[in-house]
Amino acid sequence: MRPLLLAAALSALAMPAIAAPPSDPLRTGAEAARDRALTDTTAYDFVESLTTDVGQRLAGTEASARARDWGIARLTALGFKNVHAEAFPVTAWQRGEEAAAVVSPHPQKLAILGLGGSVPTPPEGIEAEAVVFRTYDDLLAAPVGSLAGKIAIVTQPMVRTADGSGYGAANPIRRSGPSEAARRGAVAYLHRSLATGESRLPHTGALNYQADAPKIPAAALSVIDSELLEHMADRGQPIRIRLKLQSTATPSTAWTVTGEIPGSEHPEQVIIVGGHLDSWDPGTGAIDDGTGMAITVAAAHLAGAAHPPKRTIRVALFGAEEMDFSDDAFTAAHKPELANIVAVGESDSGSDRIWALALPAGAAKLGPMKTLATVLAPLSIYVSPEPSRFGGSDIGGLTMAGAPTIAFRQDASRYFDWHHSADDTLDKVDRVQLNQNVAAWAAFLYIAANTDVDLHPPAGTPSPARP
Ligand code: ZN
Ligand code: ZN
Question: Looking at the domain covering 25-93+251-449, what would its CATH class be?
């Protein structure tokens, strides 16, 4: 029911009752961009075409090159200038045949997905006794050597939260769990998907092997199968599991596609926004991160639609977020223009509604940002009293280097039901909430690009931090 209520609330926005006083052209222009966004189809059309015409876009693969060409054509068709692809090296990881099953006490297939970056098992697979840990801390408490020859399984659930913090808290289970298990002697690692739904579809994601531990094969179990293994473990009988993962990893290339609406007065001053072009392979990458690109591209398009902005608005479709490659490449390529970067922002939390905007420390007190707060208020968005400290994986390097960073806070309550699974598909996109996002980004871009506002935090502000 919530989307319908929001639809009613947003449709009220188009009414003249909230028209701005004519005396403030900045506010009027931002409101016009906002209101156009609420009924515009650019964002939805973007993600509909991406998921239909390109599909999954695993970095460094043939699909990644098709996505590059699609991105260049799309931005060009929308009127962006200087459209081009920035190439950078990646390791193209691809899953091959994958299977897992309980062998004893009785045969039972398990729904799994190999983790991005996982080494393969031998061709015949691995069969071993399982050790089930209810929490990640229980695994960490296991002595070195205690898992020799075993398959370690962590079944700790991820917590559903509106701000997505449950995912961040659970992230080490997937990222670091494989090496922690290997350090204790395990020959393979399984963990409950970092997911909030009750589907039997598993959710993948990248792992990070640590240099001082053997690399062991690792996969995510569906939530349901993780719970099944807990019940089996409760019986006290030994559980034997067979796991087969036939992944490959080869040196390759990925591309970040960028395009601009050049500034009419200060073309060298640039606002950089975007989302990531790559996706995981089981779904079609609709909400991660087709919609993030769609939102920022549509917002840039609408913010510059009526007349050229004074400053340049650049959109970036980052080429390899999921496996952590595009941030370093983009930072290296764009650090030389750091002094001219007005702001950076990334949309990568799906397409459900925004409730807050976090600005760099001190920026909320600036006149143009006060105007922005007024324009965002009818969208049910407030400017957060908490300053932004991080805005997204692909802009992290620029944030750490001192680029003013903004972060729109989205409702991520449903996002992790589908994220990184075969359920990340177009039908999950709520068009009303998608356009609420576009409206908010368009209002920000309009104001940041048509004023001289300086969003740099004052000297002495605590440094930004990666979550
Ligand atoms: Zn993402
Ligand atoms: Zn992702």
Answer: alpha beta
